[in-house]
Design a protein that fits this description.
alpha/beta; Rossmann fold; Alpha-Beta Plaits; six-stranded mixed β-sheet
Length: about 375
């Protein structure tokens, strides 16, 4: 088990991680999410004893990493797949790691087979593609057959087959009772891989819960409704649903996006209006939608709107049309309505605004961090 308590890391007057507490238990894949610069890589480095916390502590099995007996055989990690001597072959690289950790040489060929590099084991790693480098890094993490594994962006550069393989590898490792902690920016893949999520923003904890609970708490569901194409049934249904208290927005493919009413009530409104339905289906929010909703206020770098968009003709206003019922022009079909970012909880507020926080806290940090 990995346990962090009050973990804080400052670089001069910049705070990369502030008062971070969480647990990563065995038997599950725990996803570690957050925007760029949120402190994920710094946190992983502190777990592995590569950076010393300014305050607080993080332990593995009750001990700091540097105090673990034979740590390389208890903890495996992939933080930077490029941290390999390019002049060495894949086998030489793994052999050097094995010799330093007292791991039998036969284990090298075993992990080369696990990651699919047995046929290129004699090639110098400087000629490896990004995906091959990732596989070599994963092999290094598995070398000691450890009980705790940390992976920072393990699918970076992998093709679809490789991503599928990593997903099943992570889940298989967790099923064996190991502790698996994975950082990734691929929300769709994390939704298929992780059981539990720890989400941070500006170095502070935003969420610590199961994937299912995270999506349910940080997203808004809606229904897709489709009517026969002929006549004015869609417009009639849209008006009826709006009068019943729903928010209705047209989709580019002709369907209606309806929120604010349960499915049975939508069906009743359509029946009362004598409108046939070809589709009435609930929309299950994705992990990406929930993640974007939660972390919207914790992103340090934002793009601006293209000024040329102001030269486009404004869509018609009011009534039914491209903008839907009672919708402002910004909600035209094919565009996403502007939704204000939800206010951040205290745990996500810049540290400089929190009682007792250091003067230059997480909101002002631009500590260079890859992820």
């Amino acid at each position: 088990m990995i346990q962090a308590v009050g973990l804080t890391k400052q670089y001069g007057d910049k705070t990369a991680v502030y008062n971070l507490s969480f647990q990563v238990g065995p038997g599950t894949v725990t996803g570690f999410l957050g925007p760029n610069g949120s402190g994920k890589s710094t946190t992983m480095r502190m777990i592995l004893g590569l950076d010393a916390p300014t305050s607080g502590q993080v332990t593995i099995g009750g001990l700091p990493y540097r105090q673990l007996p034979n740590a390389p055989r208890r903890v495996g990690a992939l933080l930077d797949a490029k941290a390999v001597h390019g002049g060495r072959s894949a086998r030489q690289h793994l052999l050097s790691l094995a010799q330093l950790s007292g791991i039998p040489a036969r284990r090298v060929d075993e992990v080369l087979g696990v990651v699919g590099l047995q046929d290129v084991a004699g090639r110098r790693s400087k000629g490896f593609s990004l995906g091959m480098g990732q596989r070599l890094g994963i092999a290094g993490a598995l070398l000691g057959d450890p009980e705790v594994l940390l992976f920072d962006e393990p699918v970076n550069g992998l093709d679809p087959e490789g991503i599928h393989w990593v997903r099943h590898l992570m889940r298989a490792l967790a099923a064996e009772g190991r502790t698996v902690f994975v950082s990734s920016h691929l929300m769709s893949e994390m939704a298929l891989t992780a059981d539990h999520l720890i989400v941070i923003g500006r170095g502070q904890l935003l969420a610590d819960m199961s994937v299912k609970d995270f999506i349910a708490r940080h997203s808004t569901g809606y229904a897709l409704v489709r009517t026969p194409a002929e006549g004015e049934q869609r417009e009639k249904l849209g008006t009826a649903l709006t009068e019943a208290g729903a928010t209705v927005q047209p989709e580019p493919d002709g369907a209606l996006r309806v929120s604010g009413l349960e499915l049975p009530r939508i069906s009743d409104v359509a029946h009362e209006a004598d409108i046939r339905l070809w589709e009435l289906s609930p929309h299950q929010a994705s992990l990406e939608e929930a993640y974007m909703r939660l972390t919207g206020g914790a992103v340090d770098y934002r793009s601006t709107q293209d000024p040329r968009q102001g030269l486009q003709a404004a869509p018609p206003q009011g009534g039914w049309g491209q903008t839907g019922w009672g919708r402002p022009p910004a909600a035209a079909a094919g565009q996403t309505p502007a939704v204000p970012a939800p206010p951040l909880p205290d745990s996500a507020r810049p540290a400089s605004t929190l009682p007792g926080a250091p003067g230059q806290a997480a909101a002002g940090t631009h500590h260079e961090e890859a992820r």
